[in-house]
Design goal:
It is a single chain. The protein is an alpha+beta fold. It folds into three domains: 78 residues, Ribosomal protein L6 (Outer Surface Protein A, domain 3, Alpha-Beta Complex); 109 residues, Ribosomal protein L6 (Outer Surface Protein A, domain 3, Alpha-Beta Complex), CATH 3.90.930; 34 residues, no CATH class. The chain has four helices and 13 strands. A hairpin with a 2-residue loop joins strand 3 and strand 4. The longest helix has 22 residues. The model has no long low-confidence stretch (mean pLDDT 84).
Length: 240
């Protein structure tokens, strides 16, 4: 049964200017300005005093979820223009030293696993990347842009074929760049005590089939690739 309405609100701090034009929200603060268009969502956004209200009438589950999502987006915009966001990554290697440099709107990753060519990761507009020793700091006022840039850097050092040289499904090497902190403001910036253990933990949290390396399941029984391969084998055996 549908409810009459779904209403959530966000308080606007005194040092933040917020404008609502239809469903376009603009937030201004000491760190910059962010604008976001929510016209795709069947909700109403209204500014009453220092409170932003996100509301929808007779909502289904999707509309109820959209109210919470838009409310979170507006809250993140306020945090971004007042404090900013910082994602931190660390560089981990066993034998071949990895060199990371910022070149314009890209991050260049050299000597990854001894490769002769360099790998590149795109920096989203409005985001800055700082390399200091074996640590990278990704900063910006737009949380999604900061997160996407950090994901681009981490994904640039993924091994597609997952050439595992370990035993019992464990990887033989874990060279790469990993996100270890997501914070509002500057954060602590404390590196993990055991970077290899942190990388192993991240590896096993990913949905990777340990039989074929596909990124969709942990076991072969749930892996679409392994299941289809086994199905083809069974059909071939029946035909024979």
């Amino acid at each position: 049964m549908r409810g009459l309405e779904e209403l959530q609100s966000v308080e606007v701090p005194e040092n933040v200017k917020l404008r609502v034009e239809g469903r376009v929200v603009t937030v201004e603060g000491e760190k910059g300005t962010l604008t976001r268009n929510f016209s795709h969502a069947p909700v109403s956004v209204q500014l009453e005093g220092r409170t932003v209200k996100v509301q929808t009438s007779w909502p289904r589950k999707r509309e109820e979820a959209l109210v919470g999502v838009i409310r979170s987006h507006i809250q993140n915009m306020i945090l971004g223009v007042t404090k900013g966001f910082t994602y931190r990554l660390f560089i981990h290697y066993k034998h071949f030293p990895i060199t990371v440099q910022v070149q314009g709107d890209r991050v260049r990753i050299s000597n990854f696993l001894g490769e002769r060519y360099s790998r590149y990761a795109k920096i989203v507009e409005g985001v800055t990347v700082e390399v200091k020793g074996d640590q990278l700091a990704v900063r910006g006022i737009d949380k999604e842009a900061v997160a996407q840039t950090a994901a681009n850097i981490q994904r640039a050092t993924k091994i597609r074929d997952l050439s595992l040289h370990g035993r019992a499904g464990s990887p033989g090497f874990l060279d790469g760049i990993y996100v270890f902190e997501k914070s509002v403001g500057e954060g602590k910036g404390m590196l993990p005590a055991d970077k290899r253990r942190f990388a192993r933990q991240y590896y096993f949290e990913m949905k990777i089939c340990r039989e074929c390396g596909a990124r969709n399941a942990l076991t072969a029984t749930n892996c679409r690739r392994c299941r289809s391969k086994n199905l083809r084998k069974r059909k071939a055996m029946r035909g024979a």
